[in-house]
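Quick start: what a row looks like.
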Amino acid sequence: MENMQGIVDRIREDASIEIEVVNGVDDICSKCPYNVENRCNKPGRNVIEFDQVIIDRLKIDIGKKLESKILLDLVEKRVQPEELSAICKGCEWLELGFCEEGLRKKNWWKRS
């Protein structure tokens, strides 16, 4: 959780931070116990499946680099909070309510 909060804090401080779109283990996963040698070993649905669904929904290419504000604007436009229960079924972050709450707030990543 602390790792995710650190990433959120960095984005809030500088929304022009560049994010590379990947399908698999990323900076958010760096502290995950299922991250073994940069591979997701989570049983059942794992980060690769979750990432691919979002990549398809956002219509972006793996390897593309975008400013975080552009990427997060895309998420807000193309993903509705109530869709997350189906898109992210089985994800630990979904169960914490972090993502749905963020989408409902709109522009959560902008400094207030």
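That is the whole record. The chain has one domain: 2-105. Residues 2-13 form the longest helix (12 residues).
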